[in-house]
Amino acid sequence: MTVASTTTAPVSETDVLEVARERVLGGGVGLSEEQLVAVLRLPDERVPELLELAHSVRMTWCGPEVEVEGIVSLKTGGCPEDCHFCSQSGQFESPVRAVWLDIPELVEAAKQTAATGATEFCIVAAVRGPDDRLMRQVRDGIAAIQAAVEINVACSLGMLTQQQVDELAAMGVHRYNHNLEAARSYFPQVVTTHTWEERMDTCRMVREAGMELCCGGLVGMGESLEQRAELAAQLAALEPDEVPLNFLNPRPGTPFGELPVMDGTDALRTVAAFRLAMPRTILRYAGGREITLGDLGTRDGLTGGVNAVIVGNYLTTLGREPADDLALLSDLRMPVKELGKTL
Ligand code: SF4
Fold this sequence. Notes:
Helix content: 40-55%
Number of strands: 10
Bound molecules: iron/sulfur cluster
Order of helices and strands: HHHEEHEHEHEHEEHEHEHEH
Shape: globular
Number of helices: 11
Distance between the termini: 63 Å
């Protein structure tokens, strides 16, 4: 006896790109986790078609503008946490040692960032969460920046208490970055000193306080394709304003220091999958894109779903020259988002 199925055909029996064309491009609704796995399994010869679709989704639901951000490290290194990808952890033999920036240096960095045309300036500290000293530095730093430079200030200061969330919102912090880092099922292989749920708590408080939420993660850390899709789906469920996508840059001395650099085509497949998971979100190229993708891949990603970049250097590694990125955007006829439109 045969029983008629009332469910829709499994993804493997349909063409996931056809599904995406209708659901994501046509309707602005992201793909499900199962559909994202199918995207991540597409053969290499279908990657150009995938990137083209992801680009159309980005142009339709976000437009051609690219958001440019600069980041500065207020406190570098010596972090008590053990995120296995991070050379700023004080628990590993990586060569980054604790350094603090002073307020004039912070203002100078904000000025230089604004001069590139960037609209966001993110103050980052390598900490589990801010203590009183860091909160004071941040308060003084933001006041000095706001007095001297026209730019949105974002912060990335680790896990927050409700009181700290409220204080940052009151200081005028426009956006707060706190990444999920990895899929919930893979997180215990990446970090043991805090939990995925603790990270999620900070993300929720940030949202509820009215700050924009910037929340992304890293790929290429040994996770399975299913876990990569899981991360994209978990981020989509959180509906962040921005998703920074990092590719592991294996740093010597860290537990992930010996992992291979992610394959460039896999990285592009991931970029496109994240765009198909989150059609309306700012999707930012963050750390590791230079080593994973090089110049050519940077261009492919910008025409494959990405609509935001970090200019200049990352926290512990060098990035491309800002002028190179800005020339590339001009070449691609993608205007840099202006400050007035983000306020
Ligand atoms: S990722 Fe952040 S919390 Fe984790 S070790 Fe690095 S600086 Fe610390």
